[in-house]
Fold each of these.
Amino acid sequence: MTYFTFNQSLKPKTIIMWNFDNHDQISVLCSKIKIPVLSANCYDPLDPIGNIAVTYDIVRWTEDGYQARITIQNHYQYRHIEKPGWQLGWAWAASEVIWSMSGAFATQQGNCSNFKSEIPHCCKKDPIIVDLAPEAPPEKRSDGCCHGGYLAASAINPSNSFASFEMKVGNLRGNYTAHRPLNLTLMAPGPGYTCDEFVDTDPTTSSVIEGQRQEQVIRTWKSTCTYSTFLANKSPTCCVSLSTFYNPEVTPCRLCSCGCKLADKEAKSCIGLVTKQNSLLLLQCTDHMCPLRVHWHIKKNYRYHWRVKLTISNYNLRKNYSNWNVVVQHPGFSHQATVFSFNNTMLPTVGVPDEVALFWGLDFYNDALLQAEETQVGSVTTEILLRKDMSSFTLSNGWAFPRRVYFNGENCEMPLPQIFPMLPNGYSNVKPCSSHLSVLLLIYLTYETLNFWS
């Protein structure tokens, strides 16, 4: 069995192919390999059609321009945009200005000295637009706005996976030939997204009068923005550790998975670099120096089921993770699974040999992964009961461990298969006892014990 993962610390960009049958590792360059569902830019194969779509609608003409509605739709299944949120930018093709806005605002007004009576909201050639806060007053709001820049993942909360705002564009000076904006950019909130140029498409339509009438806008432009981890991060942000009930040894995160700690052995806190926003985070000092760790523990082996404990730990001393999610690729999810303390759903994929499960927190219970303290980490955990496929289930050769793990859409560094917890000699041939045999064995041992003491 072979699967693929990425090593962001290697230059140039490298795909790691693991073979679970013999623990072989093959490294190949992204630019050299041709794999279905993996593009040359190495976008996520677990969400191959994920993107963020930007729709620019011209709703009606005005005296010197037009009224526009812009919609940002997150089609990524599990990659959300967290606060401080999205920033949308472009360059005007002519001398346009923004007279007014609702549902969002431009971060800079620019030089509006040429306007004497009425001052535009923004005169910059390259405006940057951001979302309003949820507590924005009614007169500033529009439909679909005011989430503070947050866009939910489409598989988790589709009703909050889009944002919309309106603006009055002018200074076209009687020329009713609108020019599409150029050089679209999306920061969410850091780098990583690349946007196509706006292209003409069929005008957007909407239903009115309780669906009895269809109305369409004057003109529609659309752009698609896609995310690349390699453009966003210079180093990983999470790692995976493993343990089992049958082996006392814990397979830790790989040494220096996300960086190396300070030489000072007595230090309790270390500086870790999170390159998505190019900012420094204060972390607990660890051998892996990752802000986040995902731990997979094989807890029990029953006759028809097996049980796993999944724990996500936060080593940030000053950062909480709200609306977190974890993706796990594992063939065991092809059969019924019961998740006790997280929300979960199965993700549709294309060309991926194993099933992919998405987990996220329960509202008002564990949907926030709290920051660490000096003596303990913040964590959330659940147990998962999986039904066995008797034709494929095995505890041998690392089958029971994940193939790939993502936290908030970022690939987590996996341990080398050579150091996975191994079965004791001969254990792979031992079948789990049924409940009836366990009861009989308990009765027999009790009987022998009583005879011994009598």
Amino acid sequence: MLMLSAQFVIMLDASIVTVALPDIQRELGFSASGVQAVVTAYNTALGGGLILGGRVGDLFGRRRIFVIGMAGFAASSLLCGLALNAVMLVACRVLQGLSAAAIAPTALALLTTSFPEGPARAKAMSKFGVATVLGFIGGLVLSGPLVDSLGWQSVFYATVPVGAIMAVLAPRFIAPAAPRRRRLDVLGAGLVTFGVALIVVAPAQGSANGWTSPQCVLPLVAGIAVLAIFPAVERRHPEPLVRLGLFRSRTLRTANVVSLASGMMSGAGYLLVTLYLQEVRGCSPVRAGLIVAPVGVLNLALGTVLPRLMTRIGLRLSITGATMSAGLLLAVISTQMTASKNLVVFGLVLLPFGMAMLATTVSSTLAATSGVAGDEQGLAGGIRQTSFQLGIALGVATLLSLAGTRTTALEAANPAAGHAQALASGYQLSLYVLAGLVITTGVIAFVRLREPTPTPVPAPSS
């Protein structure tokens, strides 16, 4: 339960802040573009620190890192709410992201090592997936009422008591790991953290300043260059942060491609839907949240039957079926995104998409941790979570930029059509593109997942 609650809180925080941005901008003096740093700072720190967080848990004890991460998350969330100016808030968001980077892969590793591969782990991962979806949707639903009634600070205060309670309870309910004498690969840790962080921040800069601007190109090129050096450094280190042999598994590589697409759906898909409801159909944040909320409720029911279904049909068909279904349903949702479609029909179409999203998340997480030795589950979890986070960053930045470009072009070409219809067309095009990417990912998964799930092999001792 602690690990599921941790994942819920992290995903809640990933989505709950968005609605509060206008109030934060007004009260703390951010510029219209500068307020995005509140989101970018968190995403960059989280994305950059996930692999390191997972591996540190493997080496120095997952319970210890989990407790440190939860305590840090609660403290930094409190400081975010108490922020007196823009600089303080952005700095505290970095601390919040780093804390989440320690929690997420460690919680996943604690879960996977508690259950053997097979039906038991499938059931655990199904609950983990439900927590992921409920957390993200919960943020969208709760953000409006919290900001309207208690102010923008409340979106940060909401996670403080939960984080503090989990930090206190974790030592009681999580068994300590046996001590291991391992050295931390400091250079490797710095390279992978810095490289991934640069790549995560590049799409956000591209969306804000242009895709050919120095603010986008320079961090992207620098991030790729740093990560290109990383394998050479790891091969020379006697105890590398990342054992490169882990990537020989075709299942693991494919699962992380699917996790990338899953992140794009979670980040950009739900955000585009929410923006359509608010900006095109005129829904308040509360009403938009209530339209999306039934997806989470239905997923609670799906979570009880999904493990049995995946065990019966196998990992390959589970991943490909879920991913391609999610892509096709995104295309169906796109057909409903006009200025005049019935919102009841729109809400009903969201329900099966939410189910396919959950199945994609669960099956890809299972595959990403299959055949991995117990002492590397944190690393595998960190890689999976990094892929997911990169998907969120890339999807939100590129697809919102595409929607904006499409909207501007339509308004210039046909001013009489109206702003609402141009907005709807922009969001519709972006969802069509996302649908195509997700369907393509499903095809890749079907072709690539031909080998049986490998038997876990311990990492070589140094």
Amino acid sequence: MKIHLIGIGGIAMGNLASMLRSLGHEVSGSDAGVYPPMSDKLKEWGIPYSEGFDAERVKGKDLIVIGNAISRGNPEVEEVLNSGLEYVSMSAALERYILAGKKVVVVAGTHGKTTTTFLIHHLLKEVGLNPGLFVGGIRKDGFPGFEFTNGNYFVIEGDEYDTAFFDKASKFLHYRPTYAVLNALDFDHADIFKDIGEIETMFSRLLRLVPGNGKVYYWAGASNLKRICGEASKFVKSEAFEFNKKDSFLIWKKGELYSGERLLRPGFFGNHNYRNAEVALRVCEEILKKENIPKAKEKLLDALESFPGVKRRQEILFESARSILIEDFAHHPVAVEETIRSVKQRFPGFKIISLFEPRSATSHRNVFQKEYSFAFKGSAVTMITEIYNLKKVSKDSRLDVKKLILKLPKHSGTLPFYCKDPKDLVQKVRKILPQFEKDKILILAMSNGAFGGIYPSLKELVGSRK
């Protein structure tokens, strides 16, 4: 078929384009701007794309895939609708062409989706099951966020965000789960959900899709997930998970991570990541039992220790005896708090300088004005930029960063600095570092975007410390 993707420049859409081409389809695409790394990848894969949109480009195509960021008024969309061409969302295309006939592991939840998805895929692959993969990230070793194989299993990140302008339900409702993982359920995506009840509705609908011979795994620490899974228990088996409990795979003792008597040295750290690993091991053990693969536990633990991790998740960009620079994707207040706590536990004796850019749709808004004021506990210094796009939300709905700064000393016990933008933040870091001349410092930069390209400057600053 001739398939055209409108919005091909996004990571997920570009990856889908590659998978469709591997199936033998003739694939093309368009976007307002296509930048590295996706522009380079599309050229490498031999997929033609156009900058900008033109109604002529969709004519003669058998199927149009319309990305989540595309809306009415786009000339290609208008031509598709006017001419009656067949069209689907990205998620529906995955359902139809990639996931059909597979046993799908859908990893959903407010936090930890990307890491857990990559981890389950890695564990299954290391024991020889050859699973497929679709996830919004890149592993630290450069492995991309997708893989299309002839294996029976497929692991996919289940995003609760809406699907397309013509389909406002969550993407994960298209993904045919045999196994569903629910890592957490907090309020997020304030631009499309008015309250947590609306998100819970989407998760409840996801559980209705899990077959009787499948299974749902939910974090025991989330009472709302327990309730939702309880409501679905008549038809679906569910299992609560937590690490460091009597029945857990993973136990924390003597300041180290164990499984039984085996000491583990994974390449990640922090309670939230140990929970991710706990559920990944449980899902994979269940699958290996059904596949009659012997000595499953030891094989999985070997694979756990070889997992390279995910880029922009606790990614150490610089490390010396006295200075560390870490980049992390944390942007929700729960994730910010968990990340700081895990870093403090992993690097005792270091004074933490937390840098935060409110960039996500939710962090632009004041729905977590209070929660952010408590999220930076454990940081010696906290620097927060003004929200990324002041025009994105109205003033009465906007996160008030200056007001937040005033609350931080009392609520988080940290020395706060307001920064008008990332460039101003770098200058403030430069000025404050001499005060820590005798200390070991760890700079933790948290943003779900590029953070104004500050990382080379931060590397230079920490690298110049003696």
